[in-house]
């Protein structure tokens, strides 16, 4: 699972990076809603995957007598 999770996380981070080009820092505050919804969704999924990988790494380290 770890390999698939890392691949998915990496893809999400690339997608988030690509979305950064769509952010207009000078746009009115009432624009970009859909873009920000998409960013938030991908960021939330990426954070969850990162937490899963962190837990997996800590557990593997503990099983192997390491600190992680």
Integer average pLDDT:
94
The proportion of strand residues reads under 5%
Low-confidence stretches: none
Distance between the termini: 18 Å
- Tell me roughly what share of residues is in helical segments: over 70%
What is Rg? 16 Å
Largest sheet report: none
The number of helical segments is: 2
Order of helices and strands: HH
| SS-based class | mainly alpha
Global shape = elongated
Count the E strands. Answer: 0
In short:
The protein is mainly α and 68 residues long. It has helices spanning 2-20, 33-63.
Question: In words, what does this structure look like?
Answer:
By secondary structure, the chain is mainly α. Helix 1 (2-20) runs antiparallel to helix 2 (33-63). The protein contains two helices and no strands. 3% of the residues are buried. Helix content is 74%, strand content 0%.
């Amino acid at each position: 699972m770890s390999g698939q999770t890392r691949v998915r996380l990496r893809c999400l981070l690339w997608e988030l990076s690509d979305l950064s080009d769509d952010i207009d820092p000078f746009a009115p505050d009432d624009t970009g809603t859909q873009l920000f919804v998409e960013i938030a969704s991908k960021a939330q999924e990426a954070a969850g995957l990162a937490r899963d990988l962190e837990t997996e790494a800590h557990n593997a380290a503990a099983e192997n007598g390491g600190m992680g």
